[in-house]
Amino acid sequence: MQLVPVTGVRQAPESPEWEAVDIDPQFLLAGHIPSGWVEFRMRAGSRQLMRMRLYLDRGAGFHEADCIELGTVATVRPVEQRAVFFLPPDTCRLRLDPMERPGRFTFDDVTVRRVHRFELPARALYRRWLSLPGSTIRRTTVLLSELRALIGPDGLRAPRVLATPGYPPDVAPSPAELARQYTVWIRRSEARAADQKRLRATIAGLRRTPTISVLVPVHNAAERWLRRCIDSVLAQSYPYWQLCLADDASSAPHVRQVLEEYAARDARITAIFRPVNGHISAASNSALDAAQGDFIALLDHDDELAPDALLHVAALLNEHPDADMIYSDEDKINEDGVRQEPFFKPDWSPELLLSHMYTCHLGVYRTELVRRIGGFRLGFEGSQDYDLVLRLTEQTDRIYHIPRVLYHWRRHPGSAAASADAKPYAYAAAHRAIREALHRRGAVATVEEITEARGNFRVHYAVSNQPLISIVVAAPNTGVIDPDCIRALFDRTAYPNIEVIVVHDGRNDEQLRDLLTFWHTQEPKRFRVESLRTPARRSRLMNHGADCASGDLLVFLHGDVAVGTADWLDEMAGYALREEIGAVGPVLLRPDGTIDHAGFVLGIAGGIGHPFRGFPAHHPGYFNRLLIPSNVAAVSSTCLMVRCQAFHAAGGFDDELSGAIGDADFCLRLRQRGHRTVLLPYVRLCHYAPEPEVEKTAPRQMSLLRRRWATYVDHDPYYNPNLTRTRSDYSLRI
Predict the structure, then answer these.
(1) In this predicted structure, what is the pLDDT of residue 36?
(2) How far apart are CA 553 and CA 473, in angstroms?
(3) Which pLDDT score, from 0 to 100, does residue 407 have?
(4) Residue environment code for 626-658, b if the CB has 16+ CB neighbours within 10 A, otherwise e
(5) Which residues form the Glycosyltransferase 2-like domain (predicted)?
(6) Residue 543 has pLDDT above 90, yes or no
């Protein structure tokens, strides 16, 4: 097809290249447009990152909802891009947007040809089936599970890319791309959920219909937003609710008028008028005093509930009647009613909660438990709900997450949703709430606020008595030990009480022998060598090193990793020494300054994903996940700390597994024993040579991991199901 420049692009002078002159270059594709399943091919290259998108005009112009991601290119030499997708028959024009920034690029050989709907997918599936180990039944089972991860709720006819061979490393989606994705996600994911017949059937099928009291503290709310807030409760598809509106002595006369009007309209609405302003904690307690429901839900006076919010809560309570706390995903809504910035949250993550009030909206809590712990505490205004949740979760572990956007947080000038600096007192209250929570729990720790991300914190646990830490450096036949790795352990590590154990397979390597001899001479009390005298996987060498270790804590470290900051062991040990924690890992950086490892996500493309891989080191991550401690399904044994007792109780590493698969298996066995895995993203080491063995062994070993841990591979508890399952960049599943 012929490229016809439309806007923002021109032929580069004296060059075969094109040049984007602004942030939105566009081409029209001139030529015959087939319909149905098509194969799109082109060659593209650029010094700049190219994130290519194809827009469809289906008779009403080009819209974000009809857009297909074609992938990214970041190589100067042109490479072939190929994608297979479904073109609706009413498509009359195609627009190709090559990138989102000025720069030069190459485009040629653009073709769009019709294919049989099963031609290319069938070939790819057959090749994948042949590569899998085991019997015919086993191969087929694994392949079907991988397909479930790749196919979203709209099925194969969704206008999406099915195959992009040679897809480059993940790159963070731009804000514009995230906004586009969310527009598409809303249209596709929420349309069927609004089916009224199905909603009525859901309500009729509920065995339990608990009353949910919605608490709304009100103070001088703008009439427009106050009405929208109350109307969103009246519009709930679930009818068994009570709305408790507590006016905190508002000076604006319209507030009383509006509250009295709605209270007279519906008997389920209770209006309370406080005679004296006491701020939001006191007003919330007044609403709590009026609550008659089994559960309370918190709603701010200018925000909105999704129409089916309480129905989804009731449905979960029917499935889990023991629930004490329920929270959902959320987004922001601007003054024009446009929804943006969705926050798709993980399931219950205690370390993340101590770093950020991530559960926030919509929060639903058992009324009796809230009253038992004293309701909302005065003095924590702005973070009174954070303080409440920290205290409540010390009393129960019956906490459930609904992975749906049930709450719309109003964004307008002066709101916390619009600016992180709108309510500075809230951050001081949050800081205090965390400190008091740690004190109640008997933890000796300090709390650091992240200045570049207000409302986010890091907890640093103190390490008492400096227990011995055994650092196990495994050197299989395919592995190397960089001299700087060992030197940094002794010269650039502040923690003094360490022993370094190098475990190798007995190979006759003169360079390795000289290195080990040198350090045995330099550090005779803190350095030793163990040999299995037989070829072995890294997992077996690590297990042998653990058996030989004397420390209370074990650190498994690859020989091609260099220590960064001097306090890396202190930071990791503070977490690893806690009984509820299992494995602790840092972020690993590549020599070029990009991220190599930041924990694992299970179930990406049916396997194990590397979130944020390829992102620049300074990137904050999805909702600041690269700034603050959080729980992950697994971390890499490239650098992993664990208590010696917990390691042996879990059975160590599986000798038959290696790389990311072996690490995931080990961390899941720790989880099975009640120990959480933690990523500390501010602890950073440099990984010089990422292991190739993961890719080599993945097809054979992944089926074993799936047999053992199918529940977690199908649903990683720390990765929201609304996020993509084909990449690791935290983009949306559309």
Answers:
(1) 84
(2) 14
(3) 98
(4) bbbbbbbbbbbbbbbbbbbebbeebebbbbebb
(5) 213-373, 472-647
(6) yes
Nearest Cα to 633, choosing from 658, 605, 608?
608
79-87: strand order across its sheet? 9-11, 18-20, 103-114, 36-46, 79-87
323/308 Cα distance (integer angstroms): 19
* Res 167: pLDDT: 32
Q: Give Cβ neighbours of residue 321 (< 8 Å, ≥ 6 apart).
A: 208
Cα distance between residue 120 and residue 84, in whole Å? 8
pLDDT digits (tens, 9 = 90+) for 210-224: 999 999 999 999 999
CATH number of 469-714: 3.90.550.10
Domain 208-415, CATH class in plain words: alpha beta
Q: What burial letters (b/e) apply to 590-601, b meaning 16+ CB within 10 Å?
A: beeebbbbbbbb
Beta strands in 659-717 (DSSP E): 676-687
pLDDT at 568 over 60: yes
Task: Summarize the confidence of residues 250-273 as an average pLDDT.
Answer: 97
355-369, 507-521, 651-665 — most confident range = 355-369
Strands 339-343 and 325-333: antiparallel
Q: With DSSP H G I counted as helix, E B as strand and the rest as coil, what are the percentages for the chain, rounded to 5? A: 30, 30, 40
| 3-state SS string for 157-171 | HCCCCCCCCCCCCCC
Q: Are 79 and 97 in contact (CB under 8 A)?
A: no
Gap between the Cα atoms of 570 and 558, Å rounded: 19
Which tokens hold the place of 78?
Answer: 């042109």
Same fold, 208-415 and 469-714: yes
325 to 80, 350, 354, 367, 600: CA distances (angstroms): 50, 13, 17, 10, 27
- Residues whose CB falls within 8 Å of the CB of residue 503, separated by 6 or more in sequence, listed in order: 472, 473, 474, 475, 529, 530, 531, 532, 541, 542, 544, 545, 548
Name the residue with higher pLDDT: 624 or 161: 624
| CA nearest to 409, candidates 225, 284, 235, 244 | 225
Specify whether the CB–CB gap between 23 and 9 falls below 8 A: no
pLDDT band at 161 (very low <50, low <70, confident <90, very high): very low
Instruction: State the CB neighbour count (10 A cutoff) for residue 118.
Output: 11
Domain ranges across the chain:
2-167, 208-415, 469-714
Round to whole Å and give the CA distance between 9 and 18. 7
